[in-house]
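User: Okay, second chain of the day. Same drill as before: sequence in, structure tokens out.
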Amino acid sequence: MNPFAKKPTPRETIRSSKRELTNATRGIERDIATLQQEAMHANTSVATGLQSATKAMGALNKQMAPAKQMKIMQEFQKQSAQMDMTNEMMSDSIDSILDDDQAEEETEELANQVLDEIGVDIASQLSSAPKGRIAGKKVQIDESSELEQLEKSLAALKNP
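Assistant: Same drill. Structure tokens below.
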């Protein structure tokens, strides 16, 4: 700083401050205008992108037919539920059949009744059956006598 320089008057200091303030304000206003312009360009780009996305979604909706897809999904759910119910009913039926001892007893009683009607006594035949290994004999049975025997058994079953 120069000690011999003239000191500015208060009026000159105020004018100088006003000039600096005006220049700073103009610079800020230029920055604001630049930022606003950039924001407008960004908004335009976003709008263009949204427009393209809207067109693409419209084309996709035409191809996919959302109402048709919804109907197909509902039909699938209905069929799936029906299949589950059928599967459960079949499983319950099989379980009840396999667990039913009464049916097994009835079957055994019916088989014994049929065997009694045709004159077969299993218990006596099993007790008189030889135990151990038996050498097999080849015996030829006349086909006509075998056929007659089968016919007699059939007649006995028909006429109790």
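Helices lie at 10-64, 66-99, 101-117, 122-128, 143-158.

User: Thanks, on to the next one.
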